[in-house]
Amino acid sequence: MTIRLHHVAQARSFRTLWLMHEMGLDFEIRRHSFFDKSLRNPDYLALSPAGRVPALEIDGRVMFESGAITEYLVETRPEAGLGRLPPDAERLEWLEWLHFAETIGQHLANLTQQHIALREDCMRSPTVMRLEARRLEKVLEVVERVVARHDWLLPSGFSAVDTNLGYSVDIARRFVPLGLLPNVAAYLDRCKARPAFRAAAAEDGPAEIYTQDFYEAPADG
């Protein structure tokens, strides 16, 4: 049965796209847009009730949470490239980082809404922009301390959770300068150097959501 990924360029579905390349899985991509109404179409809402990506058609079911998709893929395909859970000694950390990526994702969602989704300046709040950027910086400082000790999130090496968190860091750099987070910057460089990341980036599609290299909060008033 074909694995089918519903994907928007630069969106959270990139995590799944990257992971499936790391695992060497065969799949097809159905592309959608962040800005048209295709994600609100009833046919798509039947796959992803919140109208978001990813949605992954797999094993006769549909999954629509990227963290859950990551866990399911490594549990059900142990023979694939990264298709394995970490050693028992790292199981707790693996789960922690899997969900920590969602902590970062919440700040990214708020910043994306403020800078991009809200089209009129009068709808935006420079205060919220600055507050969320500072919160994002604080959670990246956690990553900074960990990847200062070893190249990847787990001491044993690259794992599926790096695809989830690595994507989040790649988007975070558009809102928080990584100059003061050199270990995070080096971690992101290692992620981008992976052949599977490059393959996923080549398939991602033209930039549609994040069309600027950096989004800075305007000054009040």
Would you summarize the structure shown here?
This protein is α+β, with helices and mostly antiparallel strands and 221 residues long. It has helices at 13-23, 42-45, 66-76, 91-117, 126-147, 160-172, 182-193, 195-204, and strands spanning 4-7, 28-31, 55-58, 61-63.
* Mean pLDDT reading: 94
Structural class based on helices, strands and sheet pairing: alpha+beta
Strand content: 5-15%
Amount of helix = 40-55%
**Strand arrangement across the biggest beta sheet:** 2-1-3-4
The poorly predicted ranges are none
Question: Could you give the distance between the termini?
Answer: 56 Å
Number of strands: 4
Secondary-structure element string: EHEHEEHHHHHH
Please summarize the sheet with the most strands: 4 strands, mixed
Shape: globular
Quickly count the helices. Answer: 8
| Rg (CA only) | 17 Å
How are the elements arranged and paired?
Elements: E1 4-7, H1 13-23, E2 28-31, H2 42-45, E3 55-58, E4 61-63, H3 66-76, H4 91-117, H5 126-147, H6 160-172, H7 182-193, H8 195-204
Parallel strand pairs: 1-2
Antiparallel strand pairs: 1-3, 3-4
Helix pairs in contact: 1-3, 1-6, 1-8, 4-5, 4-6, 5-7, 6-7
